[in-house]
Amino acid sequence: MGVTLTGYLRCADETEAARVRAALDDHIRLTRAEAGCISFHVTATDDPLVWQVSEEFATPAAFEAHQTRAAASDWDRETKGIAREYEIKGMP
């Protein structure tokens, strides 16, 4: 069974949003290249401080590998402290 994550990344201000925009393309590229990544989308909404997030990984192990890689990445450093509201399905 696959793992899905859906929800929102919510910036408090334009400074946080600028950090997201600066790091996002690389984060998307690296994530989509990961083994087990079925789909990965971080899409701007009508609110310039909010992005909609949708991820799907083939297995819990693939999702956990993504989380581990992302936690050690520029994305993590650039977006630390930015609010995330996620629902994860398919994890044991």
Automatic annotation (TrEMBL):
Keywords from the named record: Monooxygenase, Oxidoreductase
GO molecular function, one example? monooxygenase activity
Spell out the InterPro entries in the cross-references: ABM_dom, Dimeric_a/b-barrel
Pfam family name, one:
ABM
Domain ABM, chain residue ranges per copy: 7-75
Q: Which branch of life, at top level?
A: Bacteria
Supply the name of the protein. Answer: Antibiotic biosynthesis monooxygenase
Taxonomy, top ranks, is: Bacteria, Pseudomonadati, Pseudomonadota, Alphaproteobacteria, Rhodobacterales
